[in-house]
Specification:
alpha+beta, five-stranded antiparallel sheet, 2 helices, 5 strands, globular
Length: about 70
């Protein structure tokens, strides 16, 4: 399902991962809206600002997030 999340941190911030996150404008404090999961390959469709991105479940598992309740309606 979907939901709004706030990125709090990264579990294992390797330089490769950080550079990827930077490329997709995902930073600590970013608000992430999870649109859904692609059943074909398990990638996760997220929205950051107005940009739609796909991240792998491996990358998602590295992200420390908390639910951002105030935007849920």
């Amino acid at each position: 399902g979907g939901g709004n999340y706030l990125l709090l941190g990264i579990k294992d911030p390797t330089s490769a991962l950080l550079s990827f996150l930077d490329k997709i404008s995902l930073r600590i404090g970013s608000k992430i809206y999870v649109r859904g999961v692609e059943s074909y390959n398990g990638s996760i469709e997220i929205e950051i600002g107005d940009e739609i991105r796909f991240i792998t479940s491996d990358i998602a598992n590295q992200l420390l997030v908390k639910e951002d309740e105030k935007d849920n309606n």
